[in-house]
Structures are given as C-alpha cells and as structure tokens.
C-alpha cells in the first residue's frame, strides 16, 4: 500500500508569488490533514478534510492560504501571495475512518525569498 | 489550550547508552499520546501510541510511559545505536477533538559511534 505522498518535495519562490502544494492521501482514507512547521517552532495543525468537506480549518493562518479537496481524493494547499514567514515544512496526513492513526507524508519544504 | 513541551531540545550520547526523552503537556484531557521519529528530509514515522487509559507501550528497544494526571510522558531508548539518530516528536490529541495533533518542538538525538 502506497503511503501519503506530497509534491513537490521542495519549492523555492519569491515573496509575492503563488505556490500550490499537493497531497495524495492513502487510498480509501477519507480524512486528510494539513500541518506545517515554521522555522524554530513546533508542527501546527492547519486544517482537516472529511472527503471533500472542510471539517476544521481553525489552524489556517490567514486568507492567503486556500485548501481544496475536490472529489475527496487529493488535496491542494495554495499560498497566494507568499510571504517570508510562510517558509517552513508543510506536512499532510491521512486517516481511515474508524482508525485513530494518522499517517504522515514526507512534507514539502517551502522557502520564500 | 494544550501546550506540549519536550526536554531536552538536543541530546548527544555515545552508542550503547540508555536514554530518556521527556514530554509534558498542560491539559490532561487527552485522547492519546504518540511518539514520532523524523529523519532529515523525511516524514514522520509513528513509533508508539499510548491511549489515555494506558500507562505504557513497548516496541523493541523503545518504551513509552504515560502519566496523564501529571501531564508527562517519557520515551526510553535502550542500548542506543547510531541509526537512532533523528528528531523525536511527542504529540497529543485532546478528548474533545481527536483529529488535531498538538506537537512538541522535538528532541534532536545524535548517537555517536
């Protein structure tokens, strides 16, 4: 069974540009989560999808961040426009209904110059 | 609000030593506690998961304990090896929202050959 995959693994952009991160959860996992770790801080929750619906987006930092999960399969996280403080590692995780365990992807390292 | 603290932030030991990593959390109403390992450039690998009703879990050379009332968990690594070098993360989920992880900032372990 393939694990959670994320693309790209690393993205370097300039301030003001737009970046879109993608997460492919484990097949059959209805629950999908985004987290991020900014430099020197702990990993923090961003949002939770159940299929295509946003269940909890309390961790989204501001309206420059837009997460989508059309069709309830893969998810994208768009940052527009990117700011310097958005630099960090963005993790995705997925969970099967009825199971308590979240499986994490390798993360996307975002560098905003 | 749930805050998770890990001590020490970094640890360097010679191969073969037994060691203890510490994690504390402020809100004892947890659903479970999980220890993860993160290797550079890789995702999070789950090591041990302790449900709130449990006191400890063991897997090979790893043993994790949980004292919910005092808000503490320890991860014990026996006979450390250079391959154990990684960042170890502690994370809890709360009873009222088990979908959201609260992470500590991690302990970076270096085991010297």
Fold and architecture overview:
The complex is a heterodimer of chains A (about 110) and B (about 110). Chain A is globular and about 40 Å long. Chain A is built from no helices and eleven strands. The termini of chain A are far apart. In chain A, the strands form two sheets. In chain A, strands 2, 4, 5, 6, 9, 10 and 11 form a seven-stranded mixed β-sheet that branches. Helices cover about 0% and strands about 50% of the residues of chain A. Chain A has strands at about 5, 10-15, 20-25, 30-40, 45-50, 55, 65-70, 75-80, 90-95, 105, 110. By secondary structure, chain B is mainly beta. Chain B has strands at about 5, 10-15, 20-25, 30-40, 45-50, 55-60, 60-65, 70-75, 85-95, 95-105, 105-110. The mean pLDDT of chain B is about 95. The chains are: A mainly beta (about 110), B mainly beta (about 110). Chains A and B meet through strand 4, strand 5, strand 9 and strand 10 of A and strand 4, strand 5 and strand 10 of B.
